[in-house]
Write a structure and sequence with these properties.
Layout lengths: L1 H27 L5 H9 L5 H14 L7 H16 L5 E2 L4 E2 H36 L4 H15 L2 H15 L18 H11 L1 H27 L2 H8 L4 H22 L1 H7 L2 H6 L5 H10 L3 H29 L8
Antiparallel strand pairs: 1-2
Helix pairs in contact: 1-15, 2-3, 5-6, 5-9, 5-12, 5-15, 6-9, 7-9, 9-11, 11-15, 12-15, 14-15
């Protein structure tokens, strides 16, 4: 297994190198960047020649002064060398290093996504198994229709619909994210409960939108396992239906689910960009969305490289988990 992990890590390094180069080139193709925009805005009083000369020197310090192929290549190696040393650059929209921005804002996104993931699994997986066992029954039809409706809803539409119903019309929740409108002198626990209350709507939206796909995936895998020969053999031996389903079927259903769940790692820490933007939550997804609008090149690069690293780690963990859930898989081959 050690040999296999080393091979996968070397492959992951090549993948990250290619991803980083593509991301850097795409960001350099943007018509402007926040460094030039901020400098031109704050130095309007300088003569044009001096302002242009100073701006060129500023851009050269970050490897952004030359838009030719070799200039972009030089700038890439300058940025990637710093990235390997743990320096992701500086976010000019937040006036702080990129790694500090990610470290500060990702935990809210992680908390929301983690709770939503747990609820999604607790609801979708048992429901998918139940629908498969009772194929073409009333529960199967109702759950399938509702899940397809949930899949069809865009997150921004369902989020705004929930805000209209539960925040504006009923007034149960704050309209604008974490408002901080708690009573003066509130204890830390009361503030914590208030913040949890403010996050119920976005978490509900994330759960409802994600249940459908996982439920259908679980149902399909369970149906395939139910039709396997060894399941018919287990039933022929006189095992109870509950033991057949939850001991034999469920375990083998989890094998393909490992692949899908492996990609939840970047989702947990990367945030739900659209949902956070709709509910105006200060998560890393919404912060990066605002940075993209301002073309904050280093924050966008750092965020996407952060997601790329998490994705590679998630895929590696999925491959290792195959050996746990399926003893037939030999990673040493």
């Amino acid at each position: 297994m050690v040999k296999y992990i080393i091979k996968r890590l070397l492959l992951a390094a090549l993948i990250l190198l290619g991803v980083s180069f593509i991301l850097y080139v795409l960001m350099r193709c943007a018509p402007s960047n926040i460094i030039a925009d901020q400098y031109m805005e704050t130095h309007k009083d300088l003569p044009d020649e001096e302002r242009a000369r100073n701006l060129k020197a500023l851009l050269a310090a970050y490897g952004l002064d030359d838009d030719s192929f070799f200039g972009i290549l030089k700038g890439y190696f300058m940025w990637f060398g710093k990235f390997l040393r743990g320096d992701m650059g500086r976010s000019f929209s937040r006036s702080m290093p990129v790694e500090e921005v990610i470290g500060q804002y990702m935990w809210l996104s992680f908390g929301i996504s983690f709770v939503a993931l747990i609820l999604e699994m607790l609801i979708a997986i048992p429901l998918g198994v139940k629908c498969a066992v009772n194929q073409y029954g009333k529960l199967d039809y109702v759950a399938t229709v509702l899940c397809m409706v949930g899949i069809a809803f865009p997150s921004f539409f369902l989020g705004n619909l929930f805000i209209k119903w539960f925040a504006v019309d009923l007034g149960w929740f704050p309209i604008d994210g974490l408002t901080g409108n708690y009573a003066v002198g509130s204890s830390n626990f009361e503030i914590f409960l208030h913040n949890i209350w403010c996050l119920i709507l976005p978490m509900t939206v994330m759960v409802l939108l994600s249940i459908g796909g996982l439920m259908r995936y679980t149902r399909t895998n369970t149906l395939e396992v139910l039709n396997a020969d060894y399941i018919r053999t287990a039933r022929a031996k006189g095992l109870s239906e509950s033991k057949v389903v939850y001991k034999h079927v469920f375990r083998n259903t989890m094998i393909p689910l490992v692949t899908q769940l492996s990609f939840t790692l970047p989702t947990l820490f990367g945030g739900a960009m659209i949902t956070e933007q709709v509910f105006n939550l200060p998560g890393i997804g919404n912060i990066t969305y605002q940075a993209m609008l301002k073309n904050d090149i280093f924050l966008v690069l750092g965020y996407n490289m952060f997601l790329a690293v998490l994705t590679v780690i998630g895929v590696l963990l999925a491959d290792i988990m195959y050996a746990v859930v399926d003893p037939r898989v030999k990673l040493g081959r």
